[in-house]
Write a structure and sequence with these properties.
Elements: H1 6-37, E1 42-47, E2 61-63, E3 74-82, H2 92-105, E4 110-117, E5 127-134
Parallel strand pairs: 2-4
Antiparallel strand pairs: 1-3, 3-5, 4-5
Length: about 140
């Protein structure tokens, strides 16, 4: 007749449960990393100066790579919109909108694209760098 030592069974259950807890904790940590980094593109800005934020209804002008900055433009800073490694919604329009949102937040009414990297084998995202500008509008000078 085989008898089972109750303490050993409890110890085995604790070890088994501890192993399950470790797996659950790892999954939770991975979920938190994805949650905190998000699925959208990363946005980083470096500001030289900043004005009051601009209303979302005000259009932010996008100056393409091949055009010059207007002479009366004031440089407020720069913005980089890129891939987090988990980014999913990062087509060109979305990346531009993120840069415009950052410009509005810092008082800019224009962005001048300085770099645009199209999707490639390393990333499925568009990546841009831009200068955030404040361009005086007629009648506000």
């Amino acid at each position: 007749m085989i008898t089972c030592n109750h303490r050993r069974t409890d110890k085995w259950i604790v070890v088994f449960a501890t192993g399950s807890i470790k797996i659950t904790v790892r999954m939770l940590l991975l979920f938190l990393v994805v949650l905190t980094t998000g699925c959208g593109p990363s946005v980083k800005s470096a500001m030289l100066s900043s004005g009051p934020s601009i209303s979302p209804t005000v259009e932010v002008q996008v100056i393409p790579l091949y055009k010059l900055i207007p002479e009366d433009a004031i440089l407020l800073g720069s913005v980089k919109v890129g891939d987090t490694g988990f980014s999913m919604n990062c087509n060109y329009e979305t990346v531009i909108e993120r840069a415009k949102l950052e410009a509005r937040k810092h008082g800019g009414n224009a962005i001048k694209l300085t770099k645009h990297v199209t999707p490639d084998i390393l990333s499925s995202c568009h990546r841009i760098e831009a200068s955030i500008l404040s361009i005086p509008t007629p009648g506000t000078q």
